[in-house]
Specification:
The chain is an alpha/beta fold. The protein has 12 helices and 18 strands.
């Protein structure tokens, strides 16, 4: 596909996201010859740097990520695309000078993508300033705006943010980025489901017992205490990333891979999720905080000992939730989701548990291990697809064990691609399939709002779990006595 060149304007270009993700991703796109000739990258930051200082900073950002693969000649080509524009996003002068810079059409392509790597509280004011300076004018080329989560703090604030943004932009111009959806393994979920016809007859309530989605992290909150204490695990992960994964795993086959078809089906799933009444919250959701413990044999603080965390905070660092999708395919199948910091292992997995065989054919034999079949989708760090089956052990006796069929996502000689590379390229293409439409955001907030409202008024107690463990005891969410959290991608005999 031949793409037209564009000008990437990055607000907050000197910040952490730009340093560890955006600039390395743009460089890697250049290495792969995927940035159209003439594409320019304008970095906006408050720091009083000149062009030379900016290029030396970018060199550090890129070399930190590329290590042995750094190519000096390609980096020089990349540097020719870069421009540093010093300015304070709170001042009108920043935008009038930016407009004067971008109006030089001999240097900058007509198509412009604005990446707002800034606090969501600043989205509205930055867009207003851009609009006031005619920087959203599409007379000569397209204008697209990429914004990072959180998209609001709750349903009301999300709707208020959308109302303000829509004063300046159409929905087609807004690219709400969820980097989780750019991960290759997440996209492989779609291929796995819809390109393998043998699975489709089994992908429903008749064969699947329950579905689990886990995102666990070994790290704590690092230096994000101020942000995290106001957000918590439910807002930070469940409302966004994990509900998106649930929608991809459970949605109906889209009419096509076009963006709107794909997103229509995801919204149908979110709309079909049974609302949780406030009086039923404790049967459907659980929260906890990490206490002091050990990670990799090192003693670590509890959440209340972290920097910038109030001693009486009841913000959750672990959240789990049970949902039901009330449609023809999934009615009666519980969906379990959990996320937590300072847990035993860092991983993201989707675990699909199938029903027991209807007849215990081996009930009078010495068979010890009759596990249910599982399909395990490893998202990160291990990217894999495994199907667990019961097989006979070699030997004279009738004994069985669990074995897995492994469809590795990547061959050993194939390199991983960062999610941001995929998503930044999709912005150039105008492909919005892996970006969120507002109704997806809105219905996701509708699902978790009753939980957040209930937790907000229950301020006297929160459960804890030791750092380095698999989280608190929250088995009351499970609908059957043989349901348990699946924490491993290797066979577990239960």
């Amino acid at each position: 596909m031949n793409l037209d060149p564009c000008t990437y304007v990055i607000f907050g270009a000197t910040g952490n996201l730009s340093r560890i993700k955006l600039m390395p991703a743009l460089y890697h796109l250049d290495v792969a010859n995927r940035l159209p000739e003439g594409t320019r990258i304008v970095a906006i930051g408050r720091r009083p740097w000149d062009q030379q200082k900016w290029l030396s900073e970018v060199r550090e950002m890129v070399m930190e990520k590329t290590k042995d693969d750094f190519d000096e000649s390609i980096f020089q080509r990349f540097c020719a695309r870069l421009v540093y524009h010093q300015g304070d996003i709170a001042e009108a002068k920043c935008y009038s000078e930016l407009a004067a810079l971008l109006n030089d059409k001999t240097k900058f392509p007509h198509n412009i993508a604005y990446y707002l790597s800034i606090s969501p509280a600043d989205f509205g004011s930055v867009m207003e300033m851009l609009s006031n300076n005619q920087l959203f004018n599409e007379d000569l080329g397209w204008r697209r705006v990429i914004i990072e989560k959180p998209f609001g703090y709750d349903l009301d604030s999300a709707q208020a943010l959308q109302k303000r943004i829509s004063h300046y932009l159409t929905e087609e111009q807004i690219y709400r980025i969820d980097h989780y959806l750019g991960k290759g393994m997440v996209q492989n979920v779609l291929v796995f489901r819809f390109a393998n016809v043998m699975l489709e007859p089994l992908w429903n309530r008749n064969y699947i017992d329950h579905i689990q989605i886990t995102h666990s992290e070994e790290i704590g909150i690092d230096s994000r205490g101020d942000y995290y204490n106001g957000a918590g695990a439910m807002r930070d992960m469940l409302q966004s990333h994990l509900l998106q994964l649930l929608a991809l795993v459970t949605m109906e086959p889209p009419a096509s891979m076009e963006a709107e078809s794909l997103r229509d089906e995801k919204v149908k799933v979110l709309k079909s999720i049974r609302p949780i009444p406030k009086e039923a919250v404790h049967g459907h959701a659980f929260r906890a905080q990490y206490a002091p413990g050990h990670i990799n044999d090192e003693r670590v603080n509890g959440y209340l000992q972290e920097a910038n965390i109030p001693a009486n905070s009841i913000t959750e660092t672990y959240a789990s939730m049970k949902l039901h999708i009330d449609n023809w395919r999934w009615r009666g199948v519980p969906m379990y989701m959990r996320t937590g910091k300072r847990m035993a292992k860092a991983q993201s997995t989707i675990s699909i548990c199938f029903r027991h065989p209807p007849l215990q054919f081996f009930r009078d034999t010495h068979v010890q291990c009759m596990s249910q079949n599982w399909i395990l989708l490893g998202i990160q760090p291990e990217e894999c697809i495994r199907i667990e089956m019961t097989v006979k052990e070699p030997g004279l006796e009738m004994k069985t064990r669990t074995s897995s069929l492994d469809a590795s996502f990547r061959n050993q000689d194939e390199k991983a691609i960062d999610a941001y590379e995929d998503l930044l390229l999709d912005v150039l293409k105008g492909d919005r399939s892996l970006f969120l439409r507002f109704d997806e955001v809105e219905y996701a907030w509708r699902i978790v709002d009753p939980i957040l409202q209930t937790w907000a008024i229950e301020r006297d107690f929160i459960a804890t779990y030791p750092a380095g463990s698999w989280g608190p005891e929250d088995s009351r969410l499970f609908e059957k006595s043989d349901h348990f959290w699946r924490s491993s991608l290797t066979p577990e005999c239960k």
